[in-house]
Amino acid sequence: MTINNPFSRKPWILSVIILVVIAAWLLSGLGTTPSDEASQSPSTDNQNNRTQTASTTEIPLATVKVSQFQTQPVARTLSLYGRTAPNRQATLAAEVSGTIEKLLVKKGHNVKAGQALVQLSKADRELQLKRAQALLKVRNQEYKAAQSLRKRGLQGEVALSQTEAALVEAKAALRSAQIDLENTVIYAPFDGILESLHIEKGDYVGIGDPVANVVDLDPLVISADVSERHVNHVFKGQKAAVQLVSDHQTEGTLRYRASVASANTNTYPIEVEISNPDMRFTAGTSANLELLLETKDAIKMTLQCWR
Prior knowledge:
Pfam families: Beta-barrel_RND_2, BSH_RND. By secondary structure, the chain is of the alpha+beta class. It has 5 helices and 14 strands.
């Protein structure tokens, strides 16, 4: 019995079927690969984890603070370095020659204006004064007699003029004797401190020789220099904050500002005075000055404003 096989008569049909199966198998493998599946699996897990984290974590909100600011006056100041100095000082000299007879005040002590400080020997000056007084009395009588004779026509004009000149000369001699006697005592010219004595008892001094120094420390003066940039903001009567080297703080008043700059430093000297009634603050020490130049309204910002 013969079995008819359709593929034996048409073998191309079998070939077509095999090709179709192979093509289907190949096409099914192009969609996914093992490596793609491995890479996609962690990514999918990470996305799931991030989704869960985002759902459980709350995003913090920004804190906003509102502050109100008001303008307030702000001072612009100028800081300077200065040194203290006496208000005034004087070097006393002998106006007559003679021997130092007595020192009436010790150096370093306070003195008053007109107080006697040094006594020189009077020598014969008192006798010269009495002589001048007696001579003046004679010259005055002679002049009166000459006037009487002139009125009666018994004396000429020339004789009267001569007696008048003699009278004037006698008056001058008397005044000179008085001054010489007064100058044997040396007086303080103003209230202050007898800073130094250049003589001792028994010394001989000539006319013009220095005898003593007197300083006035009330008010105490602070000298400083202002640059040309700030000089137009500095004026007489301006208030200044003062800090002495002893840390004492007080207020002073500007009493002097130079009109011409120093040729060496190109700065303008100024003087600020402070009260020193008991003269306990000394001259020659350092001091800091702070001058108020101007005041403007402004908003003051602090670090707390930004926190």
